[in-house]
């Protein structure tokens, strides 16, 4: 039977309706739009790279080609890595993003499961409430939060960010996971219930293994959001050593009105690499959970 | 193994009552089929036995223990779901072993039970596969295997064959019946397919709108339906009904159909003169005659090989007749059909109850 199924699949894969589409048509409808899209997306990275390896002389020279480098140099990157606290900033960002992501996922899994599957009285309103919390802009929320951060005595430590980032990560992940849990057939849980599983066992042995794509995309989203977060990192952290990359490169690499463009761009480029790598590993899971792929 | 007793069970969802006081007694080792049209409450009743729905009022007992407040896992039951509900991320082996693993059974015992069940269901070659790599019939068997390994007191089946194609359904029907003959586990089986009910059940419970209409063996239901609904629901093709009034011409009563045709009745037929009734006769109880009987206009002929179905008009109503012999009917032809008088059913014109 399996052979029949797999050969069936092969027929579909190579066939489809592709034979109806001629090459010129494909160029116009697929490749040209795709090329434009890729160009728009990748151009900032190109520019960052170009500036990061451009000597200062070329950078300020009038009339030089801004999109090209004549004498590439690694000076800016060396300066960034060895003469500033960049490795520290990178480490801080990594630490804060990772811990707050896992913390938020843990809470979001429990919240989403409870709202979606335990269906207690008022679960719908709790779900709405969590979503509303997400709508409060950080530019308002940072004021009360900063008072609390101060009160707990965690100001100017990574803990200040690890504890405040979940205020926007949990609502977001909860909503994403609620949708994902909803797509898992309820019968599976009923079946497990009859098989003798407790609620916690159902969550850990049935629901979570099936929700892995959802967890991954929630995780990536949460990680990216906390990696790029600016306002809280700017307001709760003072010491240069404790800053995160997004804040540090615009505060520490600008002295007075002098912008260290080369190092700044190198910092931005290096800072965006971890997220890009993360995405590239999980892109399949990520796409399938975003598009609500149907699983058997 | 255990008997299941359902006493005066009610179920409401919010303010809507869907089951209105149902009594069913399921004996030890019995295979009972709950059958009825969709929305009649049969699945809800099954889910209440399983413990997946709360019982609003009444009592359900499994093996003399009232289980109203007992959680599903302590009821010692196994359930086969309509869409199989196999765990997609586990192999066939683990699907079947899951409940035993949760019960912390010794590894060797689990292995033995799973392999034994797999042997019974011819699943041994597929133990390492995932559900998505199996065909519909194989998945169905895994779902049953998962139930068997637990050796429960009661098997519950919720329309387990409705996702299969017609041929496989017939095959699995036989397999489930064989399995029951072998294991003798008390089984409650829900279906909307009366053929499944007739072929598999020791006892059928016909449900409609949250009530039990009739309980009995398949042939009791077929031969003596208590009302119009059961008569029309059990049997394929369905029983023919013709509306009319009882006429008592001295010793030879008949039913005068609305178009004036007289339909014959046995001399001892019940019902007083002029009473409005539904005259019911099964397609297989109509015989072709030359002079007696009722004139019927042939509409459509459906030869299926073994049987031939005649759809036509008798006394102003659409009817079906079934013949095992082959006749050369033509559409539009007039034939005379004689009902077997001892198999004619009369139902009250108002209430639909059998007279």
Please provide a written account of the structure.
The complex is a heterodimer of chains A (296) and B (355). Chain A has 296 residues and is mainly alpha-helical. Chain A folds into 2 domains: 19-73, no CATH class; 79-291, MetI-like (MetI-like fold), CATH 1.10.3720. Chain A contains 15 helices and 2 strands. Chain A has helices at residues 2-14, 23-52, 56-60, 75-83, 86-118, 123-135, 138-151, 158-164, 166-182, 186-195, 199-210, 212-228, 231-236, 245-251, 261-290, and strands at residues 254-255, 258-259. A two-stranded antiparallel ribbon of chain A has the order 1-2. Chain A is flat. The two termini of chain A are 17 Å apart. With 355 residues, chain B is α+β, with helices and mostly antiparallel strands. Chain B contains 8 helices and 20 strands. In chain B, the strands form 4 sheets. A 6-stranded mixed beta sheet of chain B has the order 6-7-8-3-9-10, sandwiched between helices. In chain B, α3 crosses α4 (136-148). The longest helix of chain B is centred in the middle third of the chain and has 18 residues, at 166-183. The mean pLDDT of chain B is 91. The A-B interface holds A 1-2, 4-5, 185, 187-188, 190-197, 201, 205-206, 209-210, 295-296 and B 50-52, 71-73, 75, 77-79, 81-83, 85, 87-89, 98-99, 102-103, 129, 131-135, 138, 146, 150.
């Amino acid at each position: 039977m399996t052979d029949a199924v797999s050969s069936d699949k092969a027929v579909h894969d190579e066939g489809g309706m592709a034979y109806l589409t001629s090459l010129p048509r494909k160029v116009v409808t697929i490749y040209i739009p795709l090329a434009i899209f890729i160009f728009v997306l990748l151009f900032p990275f190109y520019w960052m790279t170009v500036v990061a390896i451009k000597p200062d002389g070329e950078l300020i020279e009038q009339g030089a080609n801004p999109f090209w480098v004549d004498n590439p140099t690694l000076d800016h990157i060396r300066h960034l890595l060895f003469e500033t606290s960049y490795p520290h900033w990178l480490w801080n960002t990594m630490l804060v993003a990772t811990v707050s992501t896992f913390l938020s996922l843990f809470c979001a899994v429990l919240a989403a499961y409870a709202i979606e599957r335990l269906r207690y009285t008022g679960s719908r309103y709790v779900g709405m409430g969590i979503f509303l919390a997400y709508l409060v802009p950080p530019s308002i929320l940072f004021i009360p939060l900063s008072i609390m951060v101060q009160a707990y005595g965690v100001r100017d430590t990574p803990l200040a960010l690890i504890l405040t980032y979940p205020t926007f990560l949990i609502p977001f992940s909860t909503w994403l996971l609620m949708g994902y849990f909803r797509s898992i057939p309820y019968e599976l849980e009923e079946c497990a219930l009859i098989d003798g599983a407790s609620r916690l066992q159902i969550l850990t042995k049935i629901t979570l293994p099936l929700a892995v794509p959802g967890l991954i995309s929630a995780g990536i989203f949460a990680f990216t959001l906390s990696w790029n977060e600016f306002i809280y990192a700017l307001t709760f952290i003072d010491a240069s050593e404790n800053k995160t990359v997004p804040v540090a490169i615009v505060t520490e690499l600008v002295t007075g009105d002098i912008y260290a463009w080369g190092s700044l761009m190198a910092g931005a480029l290096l800072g965006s690499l971890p997220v890009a790598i993360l995405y590239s590993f999980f892109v399949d899971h990520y796409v399938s959970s975003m598009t609500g792929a149907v699983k058997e | 193994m255990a008997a299941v007793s359902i006493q005066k069970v009610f179920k409401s969802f919010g303010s809507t009552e869907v089951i209105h006081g149902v009594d069913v007694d399921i004996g030890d080792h019995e295979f009972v089929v709950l059958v009825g049209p969709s929305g009649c409450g049969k699945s809800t009743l099954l889910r209440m036995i399983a413990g997946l729905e709360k019982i609003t009022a009444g009592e359900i007992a499994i093996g003399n223990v009232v289980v109203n407040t007992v959680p599903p896992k302590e009821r010692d039951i196994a359930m086969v779901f309509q869409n199989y509900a196999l765990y997609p991320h586990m192999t066939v082996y683990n699907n079947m072993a899951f409940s035993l693993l949760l019960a912390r059974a010794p590894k060797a015992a689990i292995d033995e039970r799973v392999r034994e069940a797999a042997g019974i269901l011819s699943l041994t070659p597929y133990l390492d596969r995932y559900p998505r790599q199996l065909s519909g019939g194989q998945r169905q068997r895994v779902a049953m295997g998962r139930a068997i390994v637990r050796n429960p007191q009661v098997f519950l089946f919720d329309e387990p064959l409705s996702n299969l194609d017609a041929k496989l359904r017939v095959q699995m029907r036989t397999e489930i019946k064989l399995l029951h003959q072998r294991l003798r586990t008390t089984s409650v089986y829900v279906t909307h397919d009366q053929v499944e009910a007739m072929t598999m059940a020791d006892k059928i419970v016909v449900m409609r709108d949250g009530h039990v209409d009739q309980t009995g063996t398949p042939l009791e239901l077929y031969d003596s339906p208590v009302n119009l609904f059961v008569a029309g629901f059990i049997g394929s093709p369905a029983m023919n009904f013709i509306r009319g009034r009882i006429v008592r011409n001295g010793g030879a009563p008949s039913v005068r159909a609305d178009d004036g045709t007289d339909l014959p009745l046995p001399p001892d037929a019940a019902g007083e003169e002029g009473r409005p009734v539904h005259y019911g006769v099964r397609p297989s109880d109509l015989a072709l005659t030359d002079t007696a009987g009722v004139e019927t206009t042939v509409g459509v002929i459906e030869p299926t090989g073994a049987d031939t179905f005649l759809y036509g008009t008798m006394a102003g109503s659409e009817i079906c007749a079934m013949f095992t012999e082959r006749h050369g009917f033509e559409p539009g032809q007039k034939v005379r059909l004689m009902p077997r008088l001892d198999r004619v059913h009369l139902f009250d014109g108002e209430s639909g109850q059998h007279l």
